[in-house]
Write a structure and sequence with these properties.
Elements lengths: L5 E6 L7 H12 L4 E6 L7 H11 L7 E5 L10 E6 L4 E5 L5 H6 L3 E7 L1 H8 L11 H14 L8 E3 L12 E5 L2 E9 L5 E6 L9 E6 L7 E5 L11 E5 L4 E5 L5 H5 L6 E5 L15 E3 L1
Parallel strand pairs: 1-2, 1-3, 3-5, 12-13
Antiparallel strand pairs: 4-5, 4-6, 6-7, 8-9, 8-16, 9-10, 9-15, 10-14, 11-12, 11-15, 13-14
C-alpha cells in the first residue's frame, strides 16, 4: 500500500445536520494530514445509481486517492462494508450496494476486495470498538477506514478478502442504436435542466441537422431537436442535441430547462429518430447496440 494525501468524499448527507462534518472530524482525528476533497453531498437521498455515476465520472480526474462514498439505505442491515483496490492504485470505501463498482471499473478495474470488520477498523484507528452506531456507518466505519488506507494501512488488517464476483452490481442504463436512430434512458437531469442520456455520443453520430425526440410510453408530444455543439447556437426556446461534458448525448435549451419542456424524468426512455429521407450510414465507432 502507498500513502495518499487526498481522500475524496461523496454522500447523500447534505450540508445540514453535521453529518459530513462528523465524518471529516473522524478522518482528521485518525489522519490529521489528509486532505478531504468533497465531490458532492447533494445526491438525492438513497439514490445509489446517481451517486455511482458521479463517482465514476469524477474519481478518475484525481491522482490516485482514497475514495469514500456513502449512500447507504441498507445501513445496519445485511449489506456489507467494503474496501476495494483498483488497478490504477486507488482505494474505494463504502457499502456493497453497487455504489463503488462503476468507479472501480473507471479506475482500471477491480484488483482486490475486502469485507471490512468494524471492530478491526476501529482498533487500527485507535477508536473505541463499541461506539458503532447502527445508523451512521459513514462516521463510525467508513470514515476511519478511509483515513487508515490513506496512511498506507493494508486493508487486509481491517477485514477479510472477498471474491469480486460476489459484489452487488447495479443494472446499467440501456441504450440502443437502430437504422432509424436510437433509444436511451435518461441518466441525469442537471441543475440547468439539461437531459443527459445513457447514449455515448461517439457511438451515435446524429448525421442530420434535426432529429425527432419522443418520450417512450408517456403519450407526450414529439419535439424536434437541432444538432449543435454549444448552448449558444440555440435560439430561445429551441431544443438542441449535443455532446455533453461527459461524452454523452444530451438534450438542452439555451438558458432554460429541457427537462421541463419535455416533461421528462430520470429513468424514462427517449427515442431519437432521424429524418426518413436521410439515408442511414452506420457509425464506425462501437457497436450498434449496447449498454452504457
Amino acid at each position: 500500500m502507498k500513502r495518499f494525501d487526498i481522500i475524496t468524499f461523496l454522500s447523500d448527507f447534505g450540508w445540514n445536520g453535521g453529518y459530513v462534518a462528523a465524518c471529516e472530524a473522524v478522518i482528521t482525528r485518525v489522519r490529521p494530514l489528509a486532505r478531504v476533497s468533497n465531490i458532492s453531498h447533494e445526491v438525492a437521498v438513497g439514490d445509489v445509481a446517481a451517486g455511482a455515476m458521479i463517482l465514476a465520472r469524477v474519481a478518475p480526474l484525481y491522482l490516485p486517492a482514497v475514495h469514500l462514498a456513502v449512500i447507504d439505505p441498507g445501513v445496519g442491515m445485511d449489506r456489507r462494508p467494503l474496501a476495494i483496490t483498483a488497478d490504477r492504485g486507488d482505494v474505494l470505501v463504502g457499502p456493497d450496494n453497487g455504489l463503488l463498482m462503476q468507479a472501480a471499473e473507471a479506475l482500471g478495474g477491480l484488483r482486490d476486495v475486502w469485507l471490512l470488520d468494524p471492530e478491526r477498523v476501529r482498533a487500527e484507528a485507535g477508536l473505541p470498538p463499541a461506539a458503532v452506531s447502527s445508523t451512521f456507518h459513514g462516521r463510525d466505519v467508513f470514515a476511519p477506514a478511509a483515513a487508515l488506507f490513506s496512511e498506507a494501512v493494508d486493508p487486509a488488517r481491517c477485514g477479510l478478502a472477498l471474491d469480486p464476483s460476489a459484489l452487488v452490481r447495479l443494472t446499467p442504463p440501456v441504450w440502443r442504436i437502430s437504422p432509424e436512430g436510437a433509444t436511451a434512458q435518461v441518466v441525469e437531469i442537471d441543475r440547468f435542466g439539461n437531459v443527459g442520456l445513457a447514449l455515448p455520443f461517439d457511438h451515435f453520430a446524429p448525421q442530420a441537422d434535426t432529429l425527432t425526440v419522443e418520450i417512450e410510453g408517456e403519450g407526450l408530444p414529439e419535439w424536434t431537436a437541432r444538432s449543435v455543439q454549444t448552448f449558444g447556437e440555440l435560439r430561445p426556446g429551441e431544443l438542441g442535441l449535443l455532446r455533453d461534458s461527459w461524452g454523452q448525448v444530451a438534450l438542452a435549451l439555451n438558458g432554460a430547462s429541457a427537462a421541463q419542456l419535455l416533461s421528462v424524468q430520470r429513468g424514462m426512455t427517449v427515442r431519437l429518430t432521424r429524418p426518413a429521407a436521410r439515408p442511414y450510414d452506420p457509425p464506425s465507432l462501437g457497436p450498434k447496440s449496447g449498454q452504457g
